[in-house]
Structures are given as C-alpha cells and as structure tokens.
Automatic annotation (TrEMBL):
Lineage start: Bacteria, Bacillati, Actinomycetota, Actinomycetes, Micromonosporales
UniProt cross-references to SUPFAM superfamilies, sorted A to Z: HAD-like (SSF56784), UDP-Glycosyltransferase/glycogen phosphorylase (SSF53756)
Domain of life according to the entry: Bacteria
Compartments (UniProt record): Cytoplasm
Any Pfam family hit: Hydrolase
The protein, known as: D,D-heptose 1,7-bisphosphate phosphatase
Keywords per UniProt: Carbohydrate metabolism, Cytoplasm, Hydrolase, Metal-binding
Length: 523
C-alpha cells in the first residue's frame, strides 16, 4: 500500500491524448508526449488509475454514444487500460453535479476504485480539472497547455511541465512520507512545533506518525499553539515554552530562561526528538539545547550545515503541503502512520458526521494581508442569507466589533468560544468561509468543506485546506504573490476585495453538490 495516494485520476483530452474537439473517430486518438511512459510508471508504483472526463459533445449531438465508446476503447488500447471511466455527457446548461468543475466525477471515481477522494490525485490541463479535484477533497496537479489560462496556472496548487514531470512529482511526494529504517524501538520521543494554532494542526499527521512508533510522546509548543496542541491525537504530555527564535513578536534571549528550558528538556528523559518547523524557520537553536539536555537522536529539516547538532538532517523541496512536510520529517526519523490513517488533519473527539445545518463565516485572520475586507464579507453574508442559508459569524474576543459589522443584522454572531467549541461548531456546518488562518485548518481537521478567500502571499499548495473539499477564491496572480507580507503591499487589497458575493454563493453550492448520478463506461 502506498503511503500518500491510492489512485491517480486523469483528464482525457489535452492531458492524456491530444485534444481533438468533439472527436468521435478513434483513428484520431494520439497520446500526449510522454503520456504512456508516465501512466506505466504510476501503474508500476501501485496506483489504481482512472479517467474523469467531460464529454458535452454527446449532449450537443457532435458524436454518438457508440463513437464515444470507440474512442475510449482506443485510449484503453494505447495506455494499457484504466480501472474506471467516469464521464459527464452533459453540457454547461444542464446544471448537473458531475460536469467539472463540480466534484461528482472525482467522487464517483474514488468510490469505483475503492478509496476516498482524499487518497486521490487528479492530473489535468485546465482549471476546471483542478477545481473539481479540490471540491472533492482530492489533490491536483495542473499540466498546462497552450489553452490553459494564466489565471488557472496561478491558482493551481501544483503544476508540472509534462505528464512525465507530474508523475515524478507524485512519486517524490510519496517518497518523502515513506518511513526510513529505524535504528531501534522508541520509548519517549519529544516532538516540537512552536507556532500558532494553524501550524500545530497541520503538524498533526506527523505527530500521529511518531505516536504510532513511540511508547510516549511529549510535545513542546509555544503559547500560541497550546490550545490546538491539546486537541491533537497521539500526544501524552505538553510542555509550553516561548522560543524567541520562533515567536512572531520575540523578546530578548534570556540566559536563565534557556537554562531552565534545558533542565526541563532533560527531565523529559526523551530518547530522541523530532523537530517540526516551517520552511522559513531554523531547528538548530533548539537542537543545541536538546544536545545540552542529553537527547541522543535529533531529526529536523536544515538547509544550513548542522554540524553535530542533528543526527538526521532532512531536506524538503519547495511547494510540498505543510501536512506532508511534517510527515516527511517523521518519516525521515523512521515513523509512519498506522494502517487506515489517511493522513488528513484530525482533532480528538470531534468529527463532522452530516451535511451541516449552517454556513460559518470567520472574518478575522492572523495578519492584515490575509484578511478579506469587512465590507466585502458583509455583502457575502447578506448574499448567503438571501440564498437561504443560516449564517453564523465567528470571531475572537478582540474581533467582536468586526463580527458584528460583518453579520450586518442578517448573520448570527457567535459568542466567545474555546478552540474545542469552535471545532464542534465547525463540525455542524455545511462549510466555512474564511481566509488563510487557523479556523481553515480546524475545519479541515473536523472534515468540514472550506471556501477559502485566499491572499496569495504564501502558496496555496502549501497552506490551503488539506484533504478536505475546498474552493479557492481571490486573485491568485496578485502582485503580493509569494511575498509573505503581513500587511497588504497593494492599495485596496485587490486580491480579496474584488471577490463578488455571487462567487461565494456559487462556491457554497458547489461544495454542497454531493455525490452525483454518473455514467460509468467499463474499461
């Protein structure tokens, strides 16, 4: 069994084969360059393979059902066969739940292959392929062609120049989370993530992997992540300590405080430590203290030369989702998830069970650059209410005025909640409308779909909602892209202020589409 994905799904025209508009002639089927080799490589790696394709030519009378079947048989002949074909025969006027960018075909393909969308990755050449995958909760890789729009390339969570490169990317992600050989059993392992609640939540799969292979897990975290740490499965003990080289608003380094932390780490009696960091942080200051505390084996990511501070020096290429980045650190130390764990985000004791009874809108964000303008969100709440949704507006203690304004008299303001109460609230929602901030990851952890009003200051492929149905809105190609800005550098905040309420309403409907009726053609 593979660690990350069970199945790879392909778009047909423009991805696997050269796009011949409304083709009903099998003699015109031509594989894209490198396509057969890429398919063979993925099949040999153990993935189940399927095709999900819009074929509106059937509804438009451009070819017959028999001609469509003949073309698909030719595709099977050229590529060695696919285990499922999922086909939408409708055109854009049908309003069906299967036509991409709706998630229906991806959901149906996962079901036919005996897995879930979260364990699938979709490869396509246009934005609606990516959107369908994300709306189903699957991963996606865009392989652009001359017809791919620049905005679609900018919005994609991952891109590849060819099918060959897309296959290599998928296999590289698998290799990163495949556990290395361990030197021996683990008794007490200290795991570290000293960041905010959202950072802590995306580290959860990595911590669960360590817990699967250790007798006892002690988590060192900072004050901003303490509440989230208390919700993570697999943690036996929590130590809260502010690390000045990690904290967003650090005080001076105090020698007595560092000495006290070193003593505390020694008292843990850990056999080894696994240090989780974000891509812009260094694990080496803490590694020095861990060495002074007598920890014998230390694993962490380090681009800088670590000398004798690390036993396992791990490196990760850019663009990997943060949850997988964390898993890769655990895997480098020799820890993997238990069978049946799909690698998604989790919190203890809270999980979404049904379709949800209301929409939650969370207007706040951890920094100004990621916040959707209140005026825009106020109009969004009004539009959702007009569409028949009950809308709950949430906010922290310092966001009460913001929440009141955004609710606009039509949304219901939710009082102060603990993080667990927020998780329970999200578990009862049909979806969450939110920026790139902690509640987006909390929604993913309970299994609730997310409409992500996403400022592109950091890559969506790394920080977007992980393994949960999601729709991305906002200008992915805005000038603030990849700047990591905390304050918007562009007047008017155009990447988010230009979002139209109707787009949010349509996104909520898309996520609520559910499993569609579908047409399956035997491979």
């Amino acid at each position: 069994m593979t660690e990350l994905f069970d199945a790879v799904l392909f778009d047909r025209d423009g991805t696997l084969i050269v796009d011949v508009p409304y083709n009903g002639d099998p003699s015109l089927v031509e594989p894209m360059p490198g396509a057969r080799e890429a398919v063979d490589r993925l099949r040999a790696a153990g993935y189940r393979l399927g095709i999900v394709t819009n074929q509106s030519g059937l509804a438009r009378g451009r070819f017959t059902a028999g001609q469509l079947a003949a073309v698909n048989r030719r595709v099977d002949e050229l590529f060695g066969g696919f285990e499922t074909w999922q086909i939408c025969p409708h055109d854009d006027t049908a309003g069906c739940a299967c036509r991409k960018p709706a998630p229906g075909l991806v959901v149906a393909a996962a079901e036919a292959l005996g897995t879930t969308p979260a364990r699938c990755v979709m490869i396509g050449d246009i934005g609606r392929d990516v959107d369908a995958a994300q709306a189903a909760g699957a991963a996606a890789v865009l392989v652009p062609t001359p017809v791919t729009l620049p905005a679609e390339v900018a919005a994609a969570p991952a891109t590849a120049s060819s099918l060959t490169e897309a296959a290599a990317l998928i296999l590289r992600r698998e290799a990163l989370v495949t556990p290395a050989q361990r030197p021996g059993p683990a008794a007490t392992v200290l795991v570290v993530r000293s960041d905010s609640a959202g950072d802590m939540l995306v580290t959860g799969p990595g911590i669960r992997a360590v817990a699967h292979g250790a007798e006892r897990v002690v988590l060192l975290c900072g004050p901003r992540g303490r509440d989230a740490a208390g919700l993570l499965p697999g943690v036996d003990e929590i130590i809260e300590w502010r690390l000045p080289w990690i904290d967003a608003q650090p005080g001076p380094v105090d020698a007595d405080d560092m000495a006290a932390l070193t003593r505390k780490l020694r008292e843990v009696g850990a056999d080894e430590a696994v240090v989780f960091t974000s891509f812009h942080q260094s694990a080496l200051p803490l590694a020095l203290l861990l060495r002074m505390a007598g920890v014998g084996r230390i694993t962490a990511i380090s681009d800088d030369y670590p000398g004798s501070l690390l036993d396992v020096r791990h490196r990760v290429p850019p663009g990997i989702p943060e949850a997988e980045r964390a898993r890769s650190v655990a895997a480098a130390a020799g820890f993997g998830l238990p069978p049946g764990d799909d690698g998604g985000l989790r919190v203890s004791g809270v999980r979404r069970q049904s379709g949800g009874e209301y929409v939650v809108v969370h207007p706040g964000a951890s920094c100004e650059a990621r916040s959707c303008p209140p005026e825009t969100l106020r109009r969004v709440v009004a539009a959702l209410a007009a569409d028949g949704h009950r809308v709950l507006v949430t906010g922290g203690p310092e966001e009460r005025v913001l929440a009141s304004y955004v609710s606009g008299g039509v949304g219901v303001e939710v009082g102060r909640t603990s993080l667990r109460e927020m998780a329970e609230l999200l578990a009862g929602a049909s979806c969450l409308v939110v920026g790139n901030t902690g509640p987006a990851h909390l929604a993913a952890a309970v299994g609730t779909p997310v409409v992500s009003l996403y400022a592109p200051t950091v890559p969506y492929g790394q920080w977007g909602p992980y393994r949960v149905p999601n729709v991305r809105l906002g200008d992915a190609g805005a000038p603030c892209r990849d700047t990591r800005a905390t304050v918007c550098p562009v007047a008017g905040h155009p990447c988010l202020s230009d979002i139209e309420p109707r787009e949010v309403v349509a996104a909520v409907r898309l996520l609520a589409a559910g499993a569609p009726e579908r047409t399956e053609v035997a491979a």
